[in-house]
Fold:
Amino acid sequence: MSPPSSRDEILGKIRAARGRSGPVTGAERERLDARLKSRPRGIIPQKARNTGAALVQDFITRAQAVEATVQDISSLSEVPDAVAQYLADHNLPAAVKTAPHADLAQIDWSQRPTLTLSEGRSFGQDKVSLTRAFAGIAETGTLMLLAGPDAPTTLNFLPEHHIVILKRSEIVGAYEDAWDAVRDRLGPDGLLTRVVNMITGPSRTGDIEQTIELGAHGPLGLHILVLAD
Structure:
């Protein structure tokens, strides 16, 4: 029998402190499930209450206000040209590390044969990454990205430039709406995603003389492709 993992040891100590020997079951599990489904909502600010096209425009305006660039596209077939144009505009090499996401696998890159594509995690040597967002939050122009086998977290932070595809229907008004969508995406085991990343514009700092510098702790550029459904 193999020794328990660090995760098992930590969970075992928590359960022991709670007087349990295993995962929550029965009536207690039902109470926890009910609590997740009937969670209270915070006060929704007026600026997060638009709908339809106005909501999408709110997201775009606020994303641009924090130095992200935004481009509308009507289909995934426009992604290769949009990516190639971004690379050219920023004098970047024609190489992109993509997430192994099902939507990205549908893209036909043959129209841009000079682009070099690779898939998977980034180890810090990639200049540009391409990922799929889970949601866009119009309240602050923020992207929500979930970690998983099809969405390596390293692609969000290690490359110098991050290109993200976001569907118009995935744009919500408030943070509460985005968390509702996460909870509605519970897996078959009833568990939430392990990691949720919130990204509002490129990385920045104002530590030195209160002068804003981009790319301090992550990507220098954030480019959002807003995809029509």
Q: What stands out?
A: The first helix runs from residue 6 to 17. Residues 122 and 155 are 6 Å apart (CA to CA). Residues 4-38 form one domain.
